[in-house]
Specification:
The chain is of the alpha+beta class and 141 residues long. Helices cover 31% and strands 26% of the residues. It has 3 helices and 5 strands, in the order E-E-E-H-E-E-H-H. The protein has a 3-stranded antiparallel sheet, with no helix packed on it. Strand 2 and strand 3 form a beta hairpin. Helix 1 packs across helix 2. This is Peroxiredoxin OsmC-like protein.
Length: 141
């Protein structure tokens, strides 16, 4: 597995929801967005955010992988398209993530494969999803 020494960045988010309206999410670094729930509303719903987190992490990790391999200067664009399939039984969850990488540039297929697989090893989000993280929940009034 890839070992990275990154400068820590504050992470976390808070969602607030009133009796009506959208859930409003604010990151610890002051990013903001509203969460939609209707299928016809443009915007992000919670599953979109999960897929977005994975896709963003994968392309950022692919860039790191390409740099480590010494081929970043030959890459013109990295894309990770992430969708999923919900489980039909048991608790509500994503049962399968479908990831389609597009790695454009002057590199061969073997190098593309290595970049994609290394990106999955580097990506904190993919590593977390594959694991079984502990939840520590506190409840206040």
């Amino acid at each position: 597995m890839a070992d990275l020494k990154a400068r820590p960045r504050p992470t976390g988010a808070t969602a607030v929801l009133g009796r009506a309206g959208f859930a409003h999410v604010t990151s610890v670094t002051k990013g903001e967005l509203d969460i939609v729930t209707s299928p016809s509303q443009p915007g992000f719903n919670p599953l979109d955010l999960l897929y977005s987190s994975l896709s963003a992490c994968l392309v950022l990790s692919a860039r790191i992988a390409a740099s480590q391999m010494g081929v970043l200067d030959r890459i013109t664009e990295l894309t990770a398209d992430v969708t999923g399939e919900k489980a039909t039984e048991g608790p509500s969850r994503v049962e399968r993530f479908n990831i389609v990488f597009a790695i454009k540039g002057d590199i061969d297929e073997r190098t593309r494969q290595k970049i994609a697989h290394t990106a999955e090893e580097i990506c904190t989000v993919s590593n977390t999803i594959r694991g079984n993280p502990e939840f520590a929940t506190e409840i206040f009034g």
